[in-house]
Every structure is written in C-alpha cells, then in structure tokens.
Amino acid sequence: MRVLQGDHRTWEPLEGPTAVTIGVYDGVHLGHQHVLRSLEAFGLPVVVATFRQHPVSLIDPESAPQLLMTVERRLELLEEYGVAAVALFDFDDEFRRLAADEFVEKILVTGLRARRVAVGQGFRFGYRQLGDVALLRALGEQHGFAIDDVDILEEGVPVRSTVIRALIADGHTAAAARLLGRPFRLTGTVVPGDQRGRTIGFPTANLAVADELVVPGSGVYAVRIGWDEVLRPGVVNIGNRPTFGGAESVVEAHVLDYSGDLYGRRLDVDFIAWLRAEQKFSGVADLVTAIDNDVARTRELLEGQ
Predict the structure, then answer these.
(1) In angstroms, rounded to a whole number, what is the distance separating the alpha carbons of residues 81 and 91?
(2) pTM for the whole structure
(3) Residue 12: CA atoms inside 13 Å, Cβ hemisphere, count?
(4) Is the per-residue pLDDT at 153 higher than 70?
(5) pLDDT number for residue 58
(6) Fewer CB in a 10 Å sphere around the end CB: N or C, the chain?
(7) Do 49 and 82 contact (CB within 8 A), yes or no?
C-alpha cells in the first residue's frame, strides 16, 4: 500500500484512475469497511484520503474527540482491507484554506485521479466547510468522476465513530466490538509503577497511553495482550485503585502465566469482556480473592477462542 503524504504537488502520479473515499476513518469500523467493499466493486484501485489528526483538533481543540486508534494502526488496518493507497494529510492552516473547487482540482483530480468518490451524506469540505455533497457532485460532473453518498447502518443502527467512542468510554467494549467488526484495541507503553501487584502475586504492567486515545471506562476486563506478534490472555484493571487510596486513573495489565520483564515494550490490549466494576475492598485478602475470580473467569471466557 502506498502512503502519499506531505505536499501533494510532490506526489508521484498514480498509475491510473481510482475510486476514492474521504474521511477520518478513525476505527476503520463496519461502516468504513462497507464503503471500501462498495468501491472495490467498480474494479478500480481504492484510495483513502484521510487526516493524520482529527480536523476538529485544529478547528476547535477544546471539543476534539479522543481517537479510537493511532494513525499507525489505522494505516495497518486499511492495508489489511485491501486499500491500494492512502493520502495522509496534515490538517493544517494551509490545507483547511483550500477552497472547495481547489480541493477537487488539486487533490481529487490531479493528485488522486479520482473516477469515483464515496462520502457520507453529511460530508462537508473546502474552506469554512462551504462545500457539500451537491457541490461535490456538480464538480464531479465537470471533472469526470461520479459521487456515491452513503449512510451506513448495522442492524438498523448508524455506525459512527462518535457512537463507538461513547460506548468505549462507558465501558461497553463488547458493544463497541460489534460495530468495529473486531475487539477494541488499546495501545500503550509499559512504564514503571509502584510494583504493588508483585507483592500480592499478580504482577501488572502499567500502560502509558497517549492523551489523544480513548480509554475504556473504569472496571476490570478480560483481554488479550499482544507483543512480538503473539496475543496472550490477560486481565486489565482501569481506575484509581481505591483499595490502596489511589488518586489517578491508571491502566494495569496482568498477563496470565507470564513473569517476564515488559518495561519499555509497546503492548496491544484487545478488550474481550467486561468482568466487574472497580471497587474498594476491606483488605488485601479480599482483593486477591476477587482477582483470582477475575483470572478464572477470563480463562473460561477465552478458552477455545
């Protein structure tokens, strides 16, 4: 898969006409996947025009959403779904000041050689978002490309990244997985913690997660934890560890049947099931009993999967 980035005027030309879809593509969820499949049906190489950061982070930083995944994960998934090329834009002042007709002429026509373009029904583009689907269709007629405006439903429910983010933030990772088409994955780097888990028989890896990523709501989850291309069963606790008087929320991962050193590693955590709410126990013994139960339930849930 080719990744086109930087100044569009420096891109090497694509070999022939393409089918283009435009959007943030955060999550690469079932709705996105449907669009990609529909474009493949035209027999043209599929190109995704997307953004390194969410456009709202520049337009209105205070209301910018947390993201479902890193840009690296987004590119990885788009390649898995057969995308031929990704145009990865930095949504900066220069880009957002492109007028609607300039965007079409410079990016879609000259840069990407679009013959077919798929966008959501509420799609807006160009400076001050003055362009809409009707204008895009009119410009398409001038430049020789057709428009498909799509509204994606899964079992009658709109599939939107905003809906998935809200589900995850509330701890409903299984419901989010149904809309993503795969388990929600959180990526973080293992950093030193207080090592209290080791003293009670359950060593944990504390994950530092980028501020721009959405983190599931507090609670205990059955997960799969991956590094070196291997996924291992595990239990994750998200919260402030009330039994020990914690003040800040942390993400702690316990890998079942593993005792090696993970410091500095990047871990991928796939959330499989919510086990229970985080709670304050009367003492360490009660906490250990609860964790034993969490581990047993995790083994049961993940066995054979």
Answers:
(1) 24
(2) 0.89
(3) 4
(4) no
(5) 72
(6) C
(7) no
